[in-house]
Amino acid sequence: MNKMDSAVPGEQNVSYRQIGKPRTRIDSPGKVFGKTPYAGDYVMPNMLHAKVLRSKLPSARMTRLDVSKARDLPGVACVLTYKDLKIGTVATDIPAQTGFRRRDTDQQILVDEIVRYQGEPIALVAAESVEIAEHALSLIEVELEPVPGVYDVFEAQKPDAPKVFGDDNIVASYKVRKGDVEAGFAAAETIVENTFRTQYIEHAFLEPEVGLGWEDEQGVINIRTSTQAVETFRYIADAIGIPHSKVRIRGALVGGGFGGKCDVTVELYIALLTLKTGRPVRLGYTREDSFYGHGKRHPFIISHKTGFAKDGRITASKIDITSESGPYAFMSPYVLMYATEAGPGPYLVDNVHIDSRSVATNNMYTSAFRGFGATQACIAYEQQMDEAAKVLGMDPIELRRINLLKTGDAIATGFEVQSAVWTEECMDRAWAALGEKPKDEGAIRYGHGIAAYQQGYGRMIWLHDTAEGWVGVEMDGTVVVRSGMTDIGAGQTSSLAQIAGELLGVDMMDITVYNSDSSTTPLAGTSSATRGLYMSGNAVRNAATAVRNRLAARAAQHFGVADSDIDFADSRVFVASDREKSLPFKELIATCASEGIHRSELAIFRAPFGDWIDPETGQGQVHPDYTYGAHAVQVAVDTETGEVTILKSVGAHDVGQCVNIAAVEGQIEGGVAQGHGYALSEELIYKDGCLVTPSLSEYLCPTSMDSPRIECIILESRSGLGPFGAKGIGEPGHTPAASAVANAVADAIGARVHDFPLTPEKIARAVSATRDNG
Amino acid sequence: MYANFDLLVPDELDQALTMIGGAKTAEDCAPLGGGTNLVVDMRASGKAPAALVSVARLPGLRGITIAEGTVTLGAATTVSDLLRDPRMLEVGAAMVDGSRVFAGQMVRNTATVAGNICCGSPAADLVPPLLALGASVTLRSAGGERTVPLDEYFTGYKTSVRRPDELLTSISWPVPAENSASRFYKLGRRKGDAITMVGVSVLVGMKDGVCSEVRIALGAVGPCVFRAKTAETVLKGKAPSPELVEQAARKAMEEAAPIDDVRATGAYRKQQVQVLVRRLLNQTIESLS
Ligand SMILES: Cc1cc2nc3c(=O)[nH]c(=O)nc-3n(C[C@H](O)[C@H](O)[C@H](O)COP(=O)(O)OP(=O)(O)OC[C@H]3O[C@@H](n4cnc5c(N)ncnc54)[C@H](O)[C@@H]3O)c2cc1C
């Protein structure tokens, strides 16, 4: 199944024994046997229970706040309002590795006067029980006077609109100017214009936000939580006014995040209450709290105007992008950057003109969500390609084939991608896997849809991303890996074990990985931006390689051969050219230990560093590298009711080098299921800023009954920048899935629904509109 | 989020009736079936009845009997019980349709048919099939027992003729006549665990070339599940034809009075009543000829 051709040769002296093999993940037994605790399972004697009081209004002025009755309630240990805060604000920026922090985009921790979104926290309570804490919330007297808000991105850009952010409600804006679009349109035979809209969606991770905090004997505020980012300890320390070295965050090994656990949420409230009370504090969100308590996926409105030559070649692409940020910046500028960069898709376009902006409103704030703007861009450019194929009378696969970027081509920002670009092969494989389209029967019509994509992995290069990792060998020949990388389900720790195991010839099951501890594991950055394996994997690879080289040198001396002739496998060290010459690994270790040879290494990996792209032209390098692939879907649509059944769903991706097949398939399958829901049923609806879908009963994620078997086709160009040539797959599996569903539905009904999600009602309406038009 | 209540688990029916006998309102004391409605509501509202009386251990209340031309379900019978009984296809095909699309496996294993009726939801999926099958319910209190046609049971949105001191002990319907067929279709926003946007059930019996029996029940398009009786009369006693089916479907649509909500607009629901009534009538009639 795996294509093993490589564009770049693999490592010298490494024949993959564990990498890419269908091995059980090291974190699986703990999960299967119920030994892996959720973050919510951690408790402590004498602990307090916390609750958050939130604003019911989306835009208001607080005229009165009286917590005296709540404070007087027996069993209440602490009630905090803005008046009790030393600092008052907290960063909303990416917790990057450089210490740089964006200016002027901090968020108020608790409302001091102005409420900017529904659910904005007003007060924190810690009490002896959850019931008492809840009772205390009901005793807090708050008076909110509604003030006019703005709930639409176009209204928000009008001069007289209420100001939510800065003096123009523009949180960020970018442009791309490449070639000459007007000349491109003049040369076009056909011009196709469409506008696509995407909706607010929720991460709906398995475990809602929860954490336990306590102060230790050194005065360090410890927090155990389910997070993608232990690096937020710095922002928390800044916000509560203590040194960075006095906050320690530890993650859990399960819970899920999908981007929704990158920003600071419960950790900060826990830290404040722990500091204030000196007692352990647990704060666990209910699912409903979680709906109000963290940033959502950005809705986007994307307009494409694309010129095509007679043969189908794209002559020009003009794109206008608007995303909704809500009242605070969070990841909005970066998400917009991704959408802008990905604007024209994985196609070679010489003439590109993009304007983009992220606009503040009083709807819920938005932040990171798997795909980070590149997904919304894909929903627009891939639907646009199918609409264009229809207008041009071309096969959608052939139209793409003519225009796809090839290895070495320049993307929209002018950057020439150095790794393999295998989009075409992925597209053909995914499409072929759908097979024949079934014959329509009665009201049921079948449709096939494809979507190709480009997704950056790693951080934007001006963030100067680094990761550290530590590898050490114990006296018995087992191995320990330490990496700050968080792992709340994706399998990062297991991949690190596999990488260290491959290099040291020790089975991954004999490797223990300590991770996700901001104080004692070397910081590797957040698990986001499809950087987990790329960054932490390279750091651990560097560390393991250094250890391996020292051990190999000593073994070479022992056997009287060159260092390069030494190999490690099955817990033995041996001479590659004469395998009879071998030693148990632990004997070599004993020798090294007695001679003081260093058996461990702390290594750093630096991604490519660079400057911002040119602000006037948008030209330059944004990401270190890109993942490419395609997704294909077969649907059945009931043209009378508008119901959609996804029958087949196939993702084909060039992952560079697959490290763990189960983990890669897990990333693709999970991302695809999320994409199905994105296209068909998931939507957070805000009416004048108020959420009208506040629970999993109104907010509809696909269930197992809605999901077909998802097929994964894994290609390996071995050309990526990750360990052993890996590319990232955390986000990419998700990126094209929703677009492919939309294209399949349009193929089935012969009409396009431009606004996500494609509900039965919208589909039925689109079908009757085509009938009415003849 | 959390509300306190007493959980009473009697193992004799009389005991249970005494326990709920003092209840003046559902806030005092409420019967507990699978809890898949009640517990969810309690969590959402933060309120609970002072006591819940479980039907789980009451002898003889769980099971399906078919005798003397009548199908009887005990109050504790679950949705999964219906799916496990192969006889149901013969005596209540619409109930099987309804059970298959009901919630998901976990909920089906514990949700009771009685609970589905007593929650009073207009979107309850087993109520349209039961109305189409012509079911009645037995209500029992310490003072005695009465049988009410399901058609007369609901009085409005989440209201019914059941008194708080009454337990619904069984549900029954006549075994459908020889040449008859029943169907149910649930239109939802997704396939699993969905709240119905429109639910339609029909039963058609044919005798001597005419529709001797026609019942059409509509869910989620009014304050409670109800029968589209004008639509029924269009076909009743007549030889079926595409025109009559179309006319019945239109009448049913006119009888529907759906609201707009987060799941769908009223206009779409109305249109879908017509689509689905037409479709199910055609399917049942075709299966009989
Ligand atoms: C995830 C999920 C999915 C769902 N999907 C569906 C679906 O697809 N279709 C659907 O119709 N419903 C669905 N429901 C709702 C619910 O499962 C059904 O209505 C179910 O039939 C309720 O039965 P129960 O036994 O759990 O009732 P309970 O929750 O125990 O009780 C419901 C009400 O009936 C009363 N009651 C129960 N038994 C008796 C009795 N014997 N006599 C008098 N009163 C009684 C209770 O006091 C309460 O008021 C779903 C619920 C959940 C949580």
Name some characteristics of this structure.
heterodimer, A: 774 residues, alpha+beta, Aldehyde Oxidoreductase, domain 4, 17 helices, 25% strand, B: 289 residues, Enolase-like, domain 1, five-stranded antiparallel beta sheet, four-stranded antiparallel beta sheet, 11 helices, 14 strands, 26% strand, binds flavin-adenine dinucleotide
Short structural summary:
The complex is a heterodimer of chains A (774) and B (289). Chain A is of the alpha+beta class.
What does this structure look like?
The complex is a heterodimer of chains A (774) and B (289). Helix content of chain A is 26%, strand content 25%. Chain A is α+β, with helices and mostly antiparallel strands and 774 residues long. Among the domains of chain A are: 28-36 and 466-606, 2-Layer Sandwich (Aldehyde Oxidoreductase, domain 4), CATH 3.30.365.10; 404-461 and 624-773, Aldehyde Oxidoreductase, domain 4. Chain B folds into 3 domains: 6-52; 64-174, Uridine Diphospho-n-acetylenolpyruvylglucosamine Reductase, domain 3 (2-Layer Sandwich); 180-288, Enolase-like, domain 1, CATH 3.30.390. Helix content of chain B is 34%, strand content 26%. Chain B contains 11 helices and 14 strands. The longest helix of chain B is centred in the C-terminal third of the chain and has 23 residues, at 266-288. Chain B starts with 5 loop residues before the first strand and ends with a helix. Classes of the chains: A alpha+beta (774), B alpha+beta (289). The interface between A and B is medium-sized, with 27 and 23 residues. Flavin-adenine dinucleotide binds next to strand 2, helix 2, helix 7 and strand 10 of chain B.
